[in-house]
Amino acid sequence: MSTRFKDSLLVRLLATLALLYLFLVGINCLGAGIKGLGSGVMDSYFAEGMNPVLGLLVGILATTLVQSSSVTSSLIVGLVGSGQLGVGSAVPMIMGANIGTTVTNTLASMAHATQNEEFKRAFAAATCHDFFNFLSVLVLLPVEVITKAITGRGILEAIAARVTEWTMGTQGATYKSPLKKAFKAGKAVVENTIEAFVSDPKVVFVLLAFAGAAIILVTLTLIVRTMRGVVVQRMEQYVDRILGSGGVVAMLIGIVLTIMVQSSSITTSIMVPLAGAGAVRLAQIYPITLGANIGTTVTALVASMAVAGETAVAARQIALVHLSFNLAGILIWYVPAYLRNLPLQMAEWFADFATRHKRWALLYVAGLFYGVPAVIVVLGGAG
After folding, report:
1. DSSP label at residue 174
2. Which residues contact 16 (CB under 8 A, 6 or more apart)?
3. What pTM does this model have?
4. 354 contacts 190 by C-beta, under 8 angstroms
5. What is the 8-class DSSP label of residue 367?
6. What is the pLDDT of residue 260?
């Protein structure tokens, strides 16, 4: 490794650490702003006991708009950490974020639309991620709803609660983050800056919440850009070796790459042009996609570290729900050999159909990821 590359990597890592601190400050600002506004500020969308399908669509729409499940899951952690959103109501939103993040690589496949064979391979590579998430939601959302109706707590919520107890103590305990003062100091700087221009406390809290959301979006975007160059260069050099190493190794590579670039969309989108060119097969891409799903949950776990006090337990719990959902999906749709190929077969069938009827491919993206969720969310909020 050259000295120049080492220096560049060191600068990128230091920049990433600084951005990570600002990201966690943003989580604090978002939570403090919403908490300051008091209960009821978002009841039309985030009321406890809200329709889980509406929650799912909120998660899909929010993620497609920002094109990052990491941003959406971090915002959800902030809402839960503020006490505005309950863990049970947040679970479908987390599932929706998993679906919404697939829009990026599906859009990337459209670049191959002029070449039928390339498009068929690229679209299948993109939509195998879609179908895995659809199938996981199709099984796990009803199970979550049913178990919550029977026991008062959904199965993913219960698993996450148990793991949270193991790692943070009992639910009633007050968690004190060792970095709490540093995050609160950063939040205080933002709040004081706003107060220098605005005197109305309610407006201050609104602006603080918006500032927090903006900081989260900007810092995650910059983290992605900072690390993407180094990771993508190395990934393209070793892609043949990685994909020839077997499912488990490829899945681990997907986890590591996604953690490094803080974006499952980048990991999966890199695979799309490779598939379109015929350099990799769909079965080779599948485990990397599943690893990317696991890797993207780290952002929410990191975000939960910024939440202190009694709501820190709930914040950690919803972050662990994100992880539990993806692990459960792998256990259902990848571990059993007789189910492993179902998402791939569905993706191949749909890619063949979309190649012959490209307008349906466009309608699929526009309708499923944007149109239908937007209409239902608006109607649900109005109701």
Report:
1. P
2. 223, 226, 227
3. 0.78
4. no
5. I
6. 75
Residue that wins the pLDDT comparison between 33 and 327: 327
Which two three-digit tokens encode residue 38? 């008091």
**380: Cβ–Cβ under 8 A, 6 or more apart, which residues?**
45, 51, 54, 57
Average pLDDT score over the chain: 81
d(CA 224, CA 316): 23
175 forms bridges with which residues in the sheet? 309
- C-alpha neighbours within 13 Å on the C-beta side of residue 206: 8
Cα Rg for the chain, rounded, in angstroms? 21
Tokens 């803080």 appear where?
A: 262
- Which of the two residues, 380 and 287, has the higher pLDDT score? 287
**Residue 320 falls in which region: left (phi positive, over 0), alpha (psi -120 to 50) or beta:** alpha
Sign of the four-CA dihedral 67, 221, 378, 46: positive
Q: Which tokens belong to 25?
A: 């400050």
d(CA 68, CA 104): 9
Give the tens place of pLDDT for each residue, 125-165.
Answer: 999 999 999 999 999 999 999 999 999 899 999 999 999 88
Confidence of residue 173 (pLDDT cuts 50, 70, 90): very low
- For the chain, the residue count is 383
How far apart, in Å, are the Cα atoms of 212 and each of 31, 68, 76, 118, 218? Answer: 8, 16, 12, 42, 10
Helix (H, G, I), strand (E, B) or coil at 237: helix
Question: Among candidates 347, 324, 243, 345, which has minimal Cα distance to 287?
Answer: 243
Higher pLDDT, 179 or 268: 268
